[in-house]
Amino acid sequence: MDVEKYIQNIKNSKLNQYFQNNLLELNPFRNHKIENYKYAQLNKIDYNIAHKNIHSIDLNIKDNFHDIFKNAKTMEHVTLDHMQWTFNAPDSPIRLSSLIKDPVVHSFDLNNFNEEVCIIDLSNYLELNFIFDYSNNEKMSLIIIDSEINSNKSPRYLKFNIHEKANIEILQMSYNKENSLIFYEFNQNDSSNVNLTALQANNVQLRNEFYFNLASHCSTKISGTNFCNLGVNDNYSFIQHNKPDSSSKEVFKSIVDHGAITNFQGKIYVDKIAQKTDGYQMSRSLLLDDISKSNNKPELEIYADDVKCSHGSTISKIDQDHLYYFNSRGISSDLATKILKKAFIQEVLDSIENVSLKQISDKIVSSFL
Asked: Residue 286 — pLDDT band, cuts 50, 70, 90?
C-alpha cells in the first residue's frame, strides 16, 4: 500500500501531519513488528496472487440496506474531528489507511431502518468509511457480510455510535475472502448494550479489529469463531472501560488445520475511575494437525482497584478418548470429528439471541463444517 501517495492527496496540512505522525511511523503494511500486529504477518500480503483454493458458497442472504442507505446517508470530507482518538492505545493503521484512501465519511442513522433485520453486504459498496448512529431502546438486529473473492480489497472503517439505553445485536460474517482488513469501532453511551458475534470461514488473509469504548452501566458481549481457513486469520480487540459499573465478556474460538494460522490478541483496559468493572476474556484454539499454528495473546491493563477482571487462553487437540468413544458406537472418525468441531464452537453460536441470526449462523456453519 502506497501510503505516501494517499497522504499527498490530503490538502489540509494538519491532517497531513496527523497521518504522518500516526501512520507512516507505525505502518504494519511494511513492519509487522508492531506489538498489536506481531502475529498478523500483514507484510506478507500479496494482492496480486489469485488463491485458487477458495470455493464459492452462496448462502442466499441478500442485502436489504443498500437502497435506503444511498437515499438517506450524509457525506462529509475527512476533517480533524474524524481524527479524534479516544482510546488509550495507538491509533489503528487500518482505520487511518481507510480514511486516507477514501477521505470521505458516509453517515447513516439506523433508526431510519424499519425491517426486522438489517443486512449489509459490503461487496455491494464502494464506500470505505461508515458511521452508524443508533438511539432506539428497542433492540436492533444487524448482519454485516464480508464475502466475495474479488470484491473491494481496501481497508474498511465501520464506526457505531450507540446512544444511551440503546440495544443492538450484530452478526458479522467473513467468508470466501482472499484479503480482508476491517476496523470496527463502538462508542457506547450510558446503559447501552451491544452483542457482537463474528463468524469467519474459508478465508486466506483476514484481519478484524474491534475497538469498544464503554461508558457507565454498559454491557458488551463479543463472541467469535473461525474455522476452515486457508491462510492467516487474525483478530484484535481493545475493550476500554472508561466509567464505572460496566461489563464486558469476550470469547474467541478457533479451529485450525491444513497449515493455517490463527491469531487472537485482546486487551481489556480499565480506567482508574472505572470502578465496579466486570471484564472477562477467553480465547481457545483447537489444532487438528501438526503444521497449523495458533497464537493467543490476552491482556489486562487495570488502573482501578475495585474490579472483577479475568482472562485466559488454551490450545488443544481433539481428545483421542472422545474419538474412541464415538468409534465404539459405530460412528466414523470423520463424522465424530465434525461433531466435536461443532460442539467446540457451540458456545459462540449460543451467544446469538435473535432467531433469524441464529438460523443464518447455523447455515454458514453447516456449509463449511
From this structure: very high
Band of pLDDT at residue 50, cut at 50, 70 and 90: very low
Interval 264-283 mean pLDDT: 96
Contacts of residue 329, Cβ cutoff 8 Å, sequence gap at least 6? none
Tell me, what amino acid is at 23?
L
Nearest 10 degrees: CA dihedral of 293, 311, 182, 107? 170
DSSP result, 87-123 = SSSPPPHHHHHHHHHS-EEEEEEGGG--SSEEEEEGG
Query: Helix H segments across the chain?
Result: 3-8, 13-19, 66-72, 93-101, 320-327, 333-350, 355-368
Q: Which domain, by its residues, includes 60?
A: 3-368
Task: Tell me the pLDDT tens digit for each residue of 213-244.
Answer: 999 999 999 999 999 988 899 999 999 999 99
Quick check: 256 and 287 in contact, CB under 8 A?
A: yes
Q: Return the percentage of the chain with pLDDT > 70, whole number.
A: 95
Question: 133 with 109: CB under 8 angstroms?
Answer: yes
Mean pLDDT over 158-171 rounds to 97
Q: How far apart are CA 264 and CA 353, in angstroms?
A: 24
How many structural domains compose the chain? 1
State how far the Cα of 274 lies from the Cα of 22, in Å rounded to an integer. 28
Query: Strands 293-302, 104-109: parallel, antiparallel or unpaired by DSSP?
Result: unpaired
